[in-house]
Amino acid sequence: MPAGWGRLAVALPVLAVLQLPPFLFNPLTETWAVVLSLNFPWLSVCAVLGWAMGRGPQAQPFPHYLAFLAFLVCPALPCTVRPTEPAAGRRVQRTHQFGQWEPAAKVAVLAAAATAFDCLVMPHWLTGILQSLALFCFTSLCLEVAAAAASLVSGMPVLAPFNRPEFWGAQWNVVAGTTFRTTVYEPLCQGLFAGQTAAAAAPWRRVVAMLATFAASGAVHELAFFHLTRRLSGRWFLFFTVQGPLLLAEAGLGRLCRQAGVQVPLPVRVATATATVHMLAHMLFFPDIVEAGVPRRMLHQLLPGGLCGGGGGTKLSTGG
Fold it and tell me: Under 8 Å CB-to-CB from 127, ≥6 apart: which residues?
């Protein structure tokens, strides 16, 4: 079927079924199973929507049906998909190669962070830094394993899911960024279905599409929080949605600096953006998930009894 309303109608039952996997598990006793199933109600859903619209990885020709299925089930992107555009002068690592030293380093960081969370009572600022590092290592490891699995099944090279742990866009979570670009940003800029128009989108339309993209990110992360806790946070939606206006502010400040002839060094720009998002995460992202006990449950389901009996973690979960 060609991309269009017919494909979208055919996809509706599939979209409904993809919402079911996280409901098959108890988040209190099967937290890991819920975490691993979270890909289905949003990244797999986006892949199906992309197929219906003629966009994204599922819209391209595949060498065989298993390849189509691999990129539908796994949160990974084949190298034939154009990744989110990098900033001027920056490179995006295109081909993922699993088995280098980075996975071992990330496992070591995760182990150290888990030990600290379960055994120590740490200062507020150190807790925040470790939470951010642990989140980056955990997310990137999961996506790297998924990329390796998709490449093995499909026989196709895949995009590196992470380039650098910095915000925004091309460097952080290439899979999510590219998926949201092809299923939210481009349809709002260019028309719902691929090939509808070749005209450049008006600036106001690009702004609306960008804000909607971050709001969509907030909605799917709020959905993930619901599946992990069976309640809504509100702050998770706000954390991701507010990054759209922040990106507008960053672009505006950049224009003012250029007009004034001021060149802000790249390390300063990276540090400022990262510190801003880290501060927001410390206020909006981490408190609810720690209070709900999700990291502690994941650790104790992996290692019953925890690493140190959980003495430090009890204080951390209420004060961190």
Answer: 117, 316, 320
Domain count, the chain: 1
Q: What is the pLDDT of residues 159-184, one digit of tens each?
A: 888 766 665 556 678 889 889 999 99
Per-residue tokens: 180: 């949201």
What does the pLDDT look like over 179-206, one tens digit per residue? 999 999 999 988 888 876 556 678 889 9
Distances (CA, A) of 25 to 31, 36, 136, 155, 293: 8, 11, 25, 32, 17
Q: Which residue has the tokens 């691929």?
A: 194
> Residue 129 sits in which domain range?
5-319
pTM score, two decimals? 0.86
Query: Of 64, 75, 81, which is closest to residue 18 (Cα–Cα)?
Result: 75
Q: 312, 42, 285, 284: which is closest to 180 by C-alpha?
A: 42
Token output for 275: 């510190």
- The phi-psi region of residue 91 (left if phi > 0; otherwise alpha if psi is between -120 and 50; otherwise beta) is beta
Find the distance separating the first CA and the last CA of the chain, reported in whole Å. Answer: 52
